[in-house]
Amino acid sequence: MESASTTSYMVCPECGARLVVCVKKGKVSVFDDNRSEEELAKKRHARLTGYAAKLNKLGK
Fold it and tell me: Based on C-alpha coordinates, what's the Rg of the chain?
């Protein structure tokens, strides 16, 4: 059975830096998140649009 691998994006609670946390084969790696503000805004907008569509579908 393969071990799970995942990637998470988070903000450091101490310094506020954006970080990427990767877990692969039981090993944890942390990197600076170098995505641009524009890219983050586009992804946030797409995610919120998807949530709104699901809520509208449930309301009908």
Answer: 16
> Looking at this protein, which amino acid is placed at residue 43?
K
Which two three-digit tokens encode residue 56?
């509208």
pTM of the prediction?
Answer: 0.64
- Per residue in 6-16, pLDDT (tens digit) is 999 999 999 99
Tell me which residue has tokens 């998470």.
Answer: 8
| Over residues 28-46, mean pLDDT | 94
Containing 7, the helix (H) or strand (E) segment is strand 6-11
DSSP tag of 35: -
Task: Report the chain's mean pLDDT, rounded to a whole number.
Answer: 91
Let me know if 23 is exposed, middle or buried by CB neighbors in 10 A (0-12, 13-18, 19+).
Answer: middle
Amino acid at 27: K
